[in-house]
Amino acid sequence: MGRYLINRLLISIPTLIATSMVIFGLLALAPGDPLGEFALNPSITAEVRENLRISLGLDQPLPIRYVKWFYSFLTGNWGWSFTSLSPVRDLVAQRIGATLAIVGLAYLWGGLAAFPLGVISAIKRYSLTDQAITLFAFLGFSMPTYFTGLLFIIVFSVNLGWFPFVYDSTVQVMDWNTLIQQFKQSIMPITVLGLWEMATLMRFVRSATLDSINQDYVRTARSKGLQEWVVINRHVLRNTLIPVVTLIALRVPTIFAGALITEQVFRVPGIGSLLISAIQQNDTPVVMSITFIYGILVVIFNLVADVLYGFLDPRVSYSK
Q1: Mean pLDDT, residues 165-181
Q2: Between helices 237-250 and 88-123, what is the axis angle to 10°?
Q3: Cα distance between residue 230 and residue 224, in whole Å
Q4: Shortest CA distance to 271 belongs to which of 286, 250, 253?
């Protein structure tokens, strides 16, 4: 197991380096001037802009800029924003809390709801319950989060007035009233992301459960006279968990990507909205850092999925 993890880590290093090269190269060669907004300011002369370009290292060759950026990223210095002239690490640190809260809670309840619904749908295959759950799942992952978010705003904010449709980033939980306010403004983005994730995972849970139910060891357990709930709990659920848990680990970066749109719809001050605003303003250091963080998440949770698969499935051995 230890040797396998070391090999996977050694493979992950060149993968991350290649990913960083692609991200840096594409953004560095993209059209547009990072300091173009300063040209619209009459108080900033061409000489000042040129000095600013030199201080930011934009006059250096592309390979040198990449090596400096990658080394600085590894040491914790992610550069400076072109627009706000603030450290990128500080900008990300200010936004990451809101994103983790929204994404974490959405992923938690979406996964917890998807598992029992998927199992029930498989056990009651072709019944009215199965058809209702299947219809709900198809509707859930067929509608993009921006459409669901706008639908929630129209129904629950505009028509019913239950929740605010704009996230107030100035709210600080100090007492019971501010806690209720924070909960009310967070429930819609969490629900939108959770519904999308639940609908996607539900179909995989149903498929994995159906595959386990039809196995010989399940028929043998039933032939011994065991009750149905015992067969499901002891023999079906563990094998259903094997592909589903690994899928949950692999989909963590995906739900972070889905949060990009949801944060824009509800104006949540997370790293998703920071990334989109940085793209619009051609703020290359911010875009590179956040994009590379997503790439790191993909590599890390691929490794986590491999480890979980080995723990859940006794047939998998990492000793060789």
Answers
A1: 74
A2: 150
A3: 11
A4: 286
Say which residue the tokens 């480890």 belong to: 307
Owner of token pair 């949950």:
248
CA distances from 36 to 52, 61, 83 (A): 12, 20, 10
Beta-carbon count within 10 A of 266 CB: 26
Please tell me whether residue 87 adopts helix, strand or coil conformation.
strand
Q: What is the Cβ-side half-sphere exposure of residue 145, based on CA atoms within 13 angstroms?
A: 28
- Looking at the DSSP assignment, which residues form a beta bridge with residue 87? 80
Type of residue at 106: A
* Global pTM value: 0.74
Query: Residue 140 in contact with residue 195, Cβ under 8 Å?
Result: yes
How big is the chain, counted in residues? 320
CA atoms within 13 A of residue 133's CA, in its CB half-sphere? 26
- In eight-state DSSP terms, residue 167 is -
Residue 60's CB: how many other CB atoms inside 10 A? 13
* 233-285 pLDDT, tens digit each: 776 777 777 777 777 777 777 777 767 778 788 888 888 888 888 888 778 88
Fold for 91-268, please state it: MetI-like fold (1.10.3720)
For the chain, the distance separating the N- and C-terminal CA atoms, rounded to the nearest angstrom, is: 9
Structure tokens at 65: 């800029």
